[in-house]
């Protein structure tokens, strides 16, 4: 009886896998038309009477020494011969001021100095970049924060701190018709309030650019340069994501490949509806003001990306990976992913969204999370069936089931190949042995187990949402 139940569970999960894999194949086969890369920069330069050099146009890895003397390789960046970034290839008329906002949620500023260093090392002129670190006075020691910034202050970069009481501003917002342009971007409500208040407190011209990065982000040296070029063709640009500290443990290592693959899979359409991640996006002040005005007029509490697409704003995806921190411990990792999942499904189930928008906007994420939930049953069932078959047990599977299993294995193998390619582009390996070791540890079996682990924060996040927990 137990064997029959096991085989039934195995067959059922394989059938569900096949349905999800058909959706993934549709995403795999859809080529993105909104990539911002060296070709975009070349088109922009050509349109403005310049041209990109052959050497600059080639994708390469260069060593960057801006993080305490450690070498950091960056992908697709022009060669550098100076300590603080290579020359910017954009002509002066295209260079616009960039206001960078870095919210510190719950008083966490781990890695802030590295974020500032990577911004200072940009090929984009630092004289046109200003950074505002936003924090809550009740959760952050202002003196300690100022000391941490002063100790690692990159030369030539304008950095200032801004103290905001997010709780008080949330109450104020609930009493009027104001709209938060930062809500629904993958940030917490607290961070969204802080970002909106910081934006409103700064003098941002219509043509100025606004960028949002979380503390601990590490930017490729030409991220701003490509983003500004991309904004000549699109209204909003979003960078891809991966994990920075891949040597901190097995969880960050596996998360780096999974995040790179997920980031590479999404945002296939420039017209949307699309979603923006909580970090690494840039837009003009005009676009943000227009979206905020539209949301005030309609009263729709929709995420920034969806609101922008409703306004006809196009999205470009910068072909560079911003590297974020990942908790090396299991408990901290579960807490972070649980919070992210809870916020995701709160937006998915929001009444102001239409079902079609939900499907188009979050299809890649929902398909991958469906795989994780299925793996909680499918992986153990497949392992037990394989062990029983190898030990001589009479496990008879019809031809149709075996074909189904073969299809699922092929799709998983293709997904792993795509994940490897994305990770090899995203992670700056120190040497080829480092790359080989990474690839061996992040093997398809490890990725399957990691996907199974993701079922825990997904279920916990859904339980939190059902109970009404914030």
TrEMBL record:
UniProt keyword annotations, A-Z: Membrane, Transmembrane, Transmembrane helix
Chain ranges passing through the membrane: 366-388, 395-415
Top-level taxonomic group: Archaea
Start-end of Basic and acidic residues biased regions: 72-84
Region entry Disordered, spans: 67-86
Keyword check for Membrane: yes
Protein's name according to its UniProt entry: Uncharacterized protein
Source species: Haloterrigena salifodinae
Species classification: Archaea, Methanobacteriati, Methanobacteriota, Stenosarchaea group, Halobacteria
């Amino acid at each position: 009886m137990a064997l029959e139940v096991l085989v039934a569970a195995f067959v059922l999960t394989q059938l569900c896998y096949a349905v999800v894999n058909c959706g993934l194949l549709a995403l795999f086969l859809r080529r993105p038309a909104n990539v911002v890369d060296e070709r975009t920069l070349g088109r922009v330069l050509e349109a403005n009477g310049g041209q990109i050099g052959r050497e600059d146009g080639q994708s390469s890895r260069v060593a960057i020494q801006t993080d305490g003397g450690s070498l950091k390789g960056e992908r697709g960046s022009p060669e550098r011969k100076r300590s603080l970034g290579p020359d910017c290839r954009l002509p002066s008329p295209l260079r616009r001021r960039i206001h960078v906002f870095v919210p510190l949620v719950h008083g966490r500023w781990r890695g802030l100095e590295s974020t500032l260093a990577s911004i200072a090392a940009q090929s984009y002129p630092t004289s046109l970049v200003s950074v505002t670190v936003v924090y809550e006075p009740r959760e952050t020691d202002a003196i300690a924060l100022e000391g941490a910034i002063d100790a690692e202050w990159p030369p030539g970069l304008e950095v200032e701190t801004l103290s905001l009481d997010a709780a008080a501003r949330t109450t104020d917002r609930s009493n009027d018709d104001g709209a938060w342009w930062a809500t629904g971007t993958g940030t917490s409500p607290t961070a969204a309030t802080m970002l909106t208040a910081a934006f409103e407190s700064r003098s941002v011209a219509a043509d100025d650019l606004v960028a949002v990065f979380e503390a601990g982000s590490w930017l490729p040296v030409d991220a701003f340069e490509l983003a500004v070029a991309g904004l000549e063709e699109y209204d909003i640009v979003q960078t891809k994501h991966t994990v920075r500290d891949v040597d901190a443990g097995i969880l960050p290592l596996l998360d780096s490949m999974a995040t790179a693959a997920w980031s590479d899979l999404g945002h296939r359409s420039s017209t949307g509806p699309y979603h923006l991640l909580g970090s690494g996006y840039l837009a003009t002040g005009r676009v943000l003001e227009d979206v905020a005005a539209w949301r005030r007029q309609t009263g729709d509490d929709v995420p920034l990306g969806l609101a922008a697409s409703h306004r006809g704003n196009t999205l470009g995806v910068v072909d560079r990976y911003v590297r974020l921190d990942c908790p090396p411990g299991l408990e901290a990792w579960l807490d972070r992913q649980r919070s992210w999942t809870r916020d995701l499904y709160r937006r998915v189930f929001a009444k102001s969204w239409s079902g079609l928008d939900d499907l188009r906007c979050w299809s890649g994420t929902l398909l991958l999370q469906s795989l994780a939930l299925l793996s909680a049953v499918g992986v153990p069932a497949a392992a037990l069936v394989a062990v029983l078959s190898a030990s001589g047990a009479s496990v008879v599977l019809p031809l149709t089931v075996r074909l189904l299993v073969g299809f699922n294995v092929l799709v998983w193998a293709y997904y792993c190949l795509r994940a490897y390619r994305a990770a090899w582009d995203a992670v700056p390996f120190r040497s080829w042995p480092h790359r080989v070791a990474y690839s061996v540890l992040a093997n398809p079996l490890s990725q399957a187990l990691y996907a199974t682990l993701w079922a825990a924060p997904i279920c916990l996040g859904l339980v939190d949402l059902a109970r009404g927990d914030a």
